[in-house]
Structure formats: C-alpha cells, structure tokens
Amino acid sequence: MRRSIERIITTHAGSLPRPDDLTQMMWEHAEGKTADPQRLAQRVKQAVAEIVAHQLAVGLDVVSDGEMSKPGFSNYIGQRLSGFEVSGPRKFVATDIADVPGLGRRAGQSEAQRRMVMPACVGPIAVRDRNAVQVDIANFKAALAGRDLDLAFIPAVTPSQLTFNFPNHYYGSLEAYLAAAADALSYDYEAIVAAGFNLQLDSPDLAMAGHSFSDGTEPVDLQKYVPVAIEAINHAIRNLPPEKVRLHLCWGNYAGPHHKDVELRRIIEPVLKSHAGFIYVEGANPRHEHEWEVWREVKLPEDKALIVGMIDTVTNHVEHPRVVAQRLERYASVVGKENVIAGTDCGFGTFVGWSNCDPQVAWLKLEALVAGARIASQELW
User: Fold this and answer.
1) Cα–Cα distances in Å, from 155 out to 259, 346, 369?
2) CA–CA separation, 76 vs 118, rounded Å?
3) What is the pLDDT of residue 88?
4) pTM of the full predicted structure?
5) Are 141 and 127 in contact (CB under 8 A)?
6) Which of 4, 253, 294, 328 has a CA positioned 20 to 30 A from the CA of residue 285?
7) What class, spelled out in words, does domain 9-380 have in CATH?
C-alpha cells in the first residue's frame, strides 16, 4: 500500500454500514431462514458496487468492500471455517462497562446485538469454504472496474482475535488454538494478496484482552499475551510482503467509558514486531487522542508507517476538518508526514446492523476526514 509521499493518503478501518434490506437478509440467513441464497449473493454483489462508488465519491484514496458479505468483522469465520458452532448463550464482559451497569443494560438492548451469532470452537479448525474469499475478490474487482488494486484492501480477522472472541472447547492450550487458527486463516490472507489487494488484519484483542473477557475466562496480562499473539499473526502472514499488510488494533468499538483501556505505550513495542508494514491505531476518541505523544518516545521502524484514526466511530459528532488537520499535523511532526495515513478509529459497521454512529453521519465523517487531510496536505507540503 502507498505511503503519503505527495499528500496525506486517506482510508478507513474496513467495515461500513450495510443497506437496510441487506441487513435484514443477513440476519435471516444467519438464522437459517433464507429461502434464496442466490438472491442474497446478488444483493451482496450489488451492495459492494454501491459502497465502493460511495467511497470514491467521498474522495477516499484506499477503499474496502465494506465487508458487505460478512455478518461481522470476526464472526464470519463461523461460515468459512469448520470446527465452530453456536453452543448456547454467550457472556461477554468489558470491565469498564461493568463499572456502570446501567449503561451495559441499555447497550445490550439493540436488535443487532440480540441477533448476533457468536460461535465457539468445538472441533479441529479447517477451511470449510474456499470459495467465499474468491467471491469477495471477484465482487470487489468488479466494483473497482479497473482501478488500481493497490488502492484497495480487504479486512480479515487475526488468529488472536479469533481465539479471543470465540471460546475454546477443543484445543488443549491457547498456543495450540492460535496455531490452528493461524494455519486456517492464512488461506484467505494469501488469496487476498495474490489477487492484488492489500490485507487488513483486524486485531482488537491486542488492546481489548486486558479489560475484556468471555465465558469463564478473565482479562489477560497483556505483557505476556501480546508477544504470543503477534507471533501467531506473523506465522499466518509469513508468505506475504509486509508492504501489503496493515495491522489494526483498537480498544473496542463500543460507546463505553474506556477508563480501563491499556495505554498504547505499554503494548506498542511488541506490536511493532509484527511483520505488517502498516500499524493502524486509534487517535481520535477522547481516551486515546493524546497518544500521538507515544511516538516521541518510541521510534517508528523505517520499514513501517502509521495509519491513525482521525475520526471517532462511536459518536454522531462530525469532526471539523481543521480538527482532522491538526491531528494529522501532530503525528507528522513526530514520525514524518510520509509515514502518516489518515483513517478512522474503527469501522462503521462492525457487526451487521450494529453501529453507535448513524449510517448517514458516518458518511459525513468520512467527508470530514478527506477534507481535513487536504488541509493538512496543504500545510505540510
């Protein structure tokens, strides 16, 4: 993927709001109610074309397929890998929200969360559907209509996010679970890059696992966990050129207080040992906007660049372009303008039908991102 050589490049974190009718179709499909899978496939293809056209109209440089084919950024693996099944109700705890139980009760009342399908690992992991990623690739290429594929990316979940998100009822250890996940996920990774696209690895667990847990587990010691997670990620991308891979980490795309988030400074050094050429961090929300200062202390390796969130994805406030420009200029002042790409903190459609930001507002925010990057480019160049 390109760096900001002549101006600040813009992108986002991958997922975008699905059209209402597609959302309903995907919920029904997840519940086994879809009578016509061909109709769903055709609607997904159409939605990819629509979402790509919208991104290009906004002026974004590096675009995605919006994850139109996926029920969520991580739980899509239940459709593509064997070894997973829904095994009863799931408990997920974010300890910051646990401190404010009233907020937690209100947050759990959305239809999207009630209908979210989250599987568990109950058997050996293997690639079950080798065609799904090829359909994603074909739909995306058709929507791009000959545009440079180096200005496009497809997101995929990491091995460690998979093991964090989906309880292990089969493997004897975390290391064995991670190894199996890495081997299976590498199939999609390699297919995406072989097709000419950039690969985004989504790994909220790198920061979230310190304050979140599920199903009888507990928060982990990130000082021990992150190096193990990065090792599994590196194994999964061992055959890929680093410049085609971007690693996204975040503290959870939910509207909580986030007062128990780990500081970026405490985890960034092992993260920088990732073989990904682009490290993607949050930089817009009130809990993490200050962390541009981290890069005064931590040297960004010469073979890496930063994608930084300039837009908060869990509020309906639209950032002023000057705010975006100021944030970009701060990062440029410490790591160099060529090493800064403007993004969003996280996705706008993390799971089907679930977003704290109204879909129409999401597009206004992306317009502000592009406008702010233009202002910063004028200042920096």
Assistant:
1) 28, 12, 20
2) 9
3) 64
4) 0.95
5) no
6) 4
7) alpha beta
> With contact defined as beta carbons under 8 Å apart, do 134 and 96 qualify?
no
Residues 152/153/154/155 CA torsion (nearest 10 deg): -150
- Cβ burial 306-326 (10 Å sphere, 16+ → b, else e): bbbbbbbbbbeebbebebbbe
**75-79, 155-159, 193-197, 243-247 — which is least confidently predicted?**
75-79
Res 104: pLDDT: 66
- Secondary structure of the chain in the HEC alphabet? CCCCCCCCEECCCCCCCCCHHHHHHHHHHHCCCCCCHHHHHHHHHHHHHHHHHHHHHHCCCCEECCCCCCCECCCCHHHHEEEEECCCCCCEEEHHHHCCHHHHHHHCCCHHHHCCCCCEEEEEEEECCCCHHHHHHHHHHHHHCCCCHHHEEEEEECHHHHHHHCCECCCCCHHHHHHHHHHHHHHHHHHHHHCCCEEEEECCHHHHCCCEEECCCCCCCHHHHHHHHHHHHHHHCCCCCHHHEEEECCCCCCCCCCCCCCCHHHHHHHHCCCCCCEEEECCCCCCCHHHHHHHHHCCCCCCCEEEEECCCCCCCCCCCHHHHHHHHHHHHHHHCHHHEEEECCCCCCCECCECCCCHHHHHHHHHHHHHHHHHHHHHHC
pLDDT in tens, 323-341: 999 999 999 999 999 999 9
pLDDT digit string, tens, across residues 298-308? 999 999 999 99
Q: What percent of the chain has pLDDT over 70?
A: 95
Please compute the mean of the pLDDT values over residues 263-292 and round it to a whole number: 98
